[in-house]
Amino acid sequence: MVCIVQMSNVGERFATGGQGCDSGRVVIWNMAPVLNEQAESNKSVPRILCQMDNHLACVNCVRWSGNGLMLASGGDDKLVMIWKKTISGSGGIGAFGGGGKSVEHWRCISTLRGHAGDVLDLAWSPQDRWIASCSVDNTIIIWDAQQFPKIVHVLKGHTGLVKGVTWDPVGKFIASQSDDRSLKVWKTTDWSCFKTITEPFEECGGTTHILRLSWSPDGQYLVSAHAMNGGGPTAQIIERDGWKCDKDFVGHRKAVTCVRFHNSILKRSAPKTNKLQQYCCLAVGARDRSLSIWLTALQRPLVVIHDLFQDSILDLSWSCDGYTLLTCSGDGHIACLQFTAQELGTPLSEEDKNILYQRMYGKNANIDLTAQAEKEMIVENSDFLNVLKSNLVPPTLVPPQPPQLGAKRDEGKSSQATAAAAPMSMAIQSSSSLAAPTPILKQIETKTADGKRRITPMFIPLNDDNGVPSNATNNMPTAIEFGSKSSENSVNVEPKQLVSEEPTVPLPTEPSSKLDNRLKRIATVPPQKADASAGSTEQTTGSSSSQPASNQKLVERTRPVTYSTGKATVIQGNSFKAFGEVRVQVHNNSVKTAYGTLCRVVGLVVNAQRVERKVWETVVGSPVVCFAVAAKCALVCSQDHTIRMLDNKTGTPVFPVLSLTSPAVQCTFSSNSKLAAVVTESGILRIWNVPEKSVLLSTNCAEVMSGSFVTILHVSDQGMPFIVLSNGTSYCYCRKLDSWMLINSSDPVIRHGLIGNKANAPVRNIKAYPLSTIQSYGSFSGPKVNSFAEMHSAPWQTSAAIAFIENQIKICEMITSPAELKYWYSMLGFQLALNGSEEKIRQVLDDLLGASHSLDTRMGDDNDPAVLGISKHVFMEDVLNHLKMQTKWQRIYTEYLDQLKFLKDRDGRDKALQME
Length: 916
Prior knowledge:
There is one protein chain. The protein is of the alpha+beta class. Among the domains are: about 1-85 and about 100-120, Methylamine Dehydrogenase, Chain H; about 155-360, YVTN repeat-like/Quinoprotein amine dehydrogenase (Methylamine Dehydrogenase, Chain H); about 750-780 and about 795-915. It is built from 16 helices and 53 strands. The protein has a five-stranded antiparallel β-sheet with strand order 17-18-19-20-34, with no helix packed on it. Strands 21-24-25-26-33 form a five-stranded antiparallel β-sheet, with no helix packed on it. α9 packs across α12 (about 795-815), α14 (about 840-850) runs parallel beside α16 and α15 (about 870-885) runs antiparallel to α16. It is elongated, with a radius of gyration of 33 Å. The relative contact order is 0.06.
């Protein structure tokens, strides 16, 4: 008999547990023959990787740890065993059991004894800090996964058999469900019972072998097993916001035994509207031998399969990639369902999930479950009373755009309408008299030559894409098979339009926001498209976008498109670039002479009627490899290493013909058109001041190129050159330091910092945000799969994040970027509020307060009250605003706020005296 199934997070193997010949048995299987027909027919590919017969009675549960390195099993022998893979089979008697030769060797590294009855369910906490086990002895035991077999706490309160346990994905709660017709939510800070829910289970009669509940990956919804609504079995939906129980899944004919959320938040484009949706996926199994798959973006189940087994469904497990679902039954069979990205969607990346967690809970995916920050504290400062219910929100670099005219919102009415009309899409509103569900018989069943059953799932047709009607009329279907609202007072509730008035900029999430609305709001940010293949186009276009004056708009078109190779390549055919009404055209190899082929360079003016008028023409004795156009001049670089600066109005040279040691591969102007820059094949970099006809900078990129080449060149109005290399690394040259400053590279600290602080869309505005724009061109990938789980809450991450942010601040100071400087100081405050130490917070605040006012006499001699024209006290206010969101920093906040107010009052008095 197979009682349980669980897939490893790496997707290579899965484990089953159940009754062996004369003992409890755990088997680790190879996933390849299940998914691949060729591997199934290949006898050299093993099916069973290892078999362990150590349990003395039937195994009721097997669960892999988050990092996939350990496997936990619990059974009727009252034991929990922790297994770990070893190189050899020298793990002692019965280490891998079974009598046969094992492909892999798994050793029991710890046996956990503490329960007085059968162990029915297990659950690893986020980051594998703890593992919880529940038993027929009415208790839940929390084990320390770092110090097996240490017991952290025993949760007592249920009066019946505890048959299911699950962790809140953000680590604040653990939930359990029992035969006593209750579901309890326990706090992980002190292990006290936080909430007991009984109403949905009061009518439950009979019993099930297990009651496996599940928490949604965003932490907003807890779905229980066996509940009742109007005499019919349901899976109850419990909202984290207020622990409301007014929605559930209906449709199964017998008691729901297990539910399992997909491990990731998913995203896809809606089939009809093409709008980006973000949602969760849930599998539900019941004693009626049927399985249903739900998406929160749909009104009806995605898949319903009937008579999948001959007995009750006992467990469900999603694969790491999210496209494979294993389910098992008490009849000893396992079914494997495979989906596609078109059917389910694609998982949200770890960094996007991190951003979502930070917005919702003020913490990232690497949750420190042992931190004391979650413990309740006495509020000593009245300023904290208004923020206790708020979440710490990370700052945004680009300020949110104001809502468009005509899109006015009444905040009070809006929140009420959202609360009344934003039910979870999977739980459809219907009348109080539920229509009796009729079985769906349209599924295809075939048998293979070896007698195996193959069931083709039937996809339920949908009424609309988003699961929410787009108008205000009550157009709900009259007959609903799956999904119903529990409340019987919802007959006349009219669904409202939910997304028409949403702003196009991500906003902090209110605590009362529902899952679908919140995720759609994040997804409404329009992506900013940019072509990284043409460096000067991207840079100058980005700079002009902040001030879209019609007479300063740069347009560049080159046909055909050429891609940078590090070598000067002759422009093929005709190409032109324009600035305002001036257009410069290049025609290579257009004039044949006895002395050789000439290149024509033509200046044109485009009037208001879009009619071109030729104003000048000149010839160049060598093919042009790159050129750029500014407000007054055009920079033309040829294959023979020469460089020409031409007047846009007359075509006459501004400079004499210049020659470098190799041809230029990139050329550009600053956004104010006063500076021109080129970089050559050999790495020579020159920046000229055009009005003064003088060189501003002469240096060499070769010292940082190391086998690569320059793909993007930009020069700021202050004369700071930025380069992006073909290997993704980027630099900025500082004349003051006579050195290249590292902007982006494969350095782990930089990668961790950029991924952790990345916005929804890359910032491409070179004038307003030069640092972020250049860093957005890096081609370095994020961490490998499962690395977040493997790193746990690694202590190095806080140090790395702060080191990265402080370096960003120093770069912003050197490149004169005040907007980004303010952003990174705000980000520093956000990081310190989340994970900083008191010593580091005081050091930062002392520095911003000023050396003369600091209590630390070791402070440096930097008494400058401003940076880039911004008072340090402005940065200090940003930091304090983030500290205010965390109660544990209230004393530091009060202390430094008082000092800041004193200095402001004193400065105000001094100014008043000077005016007198």
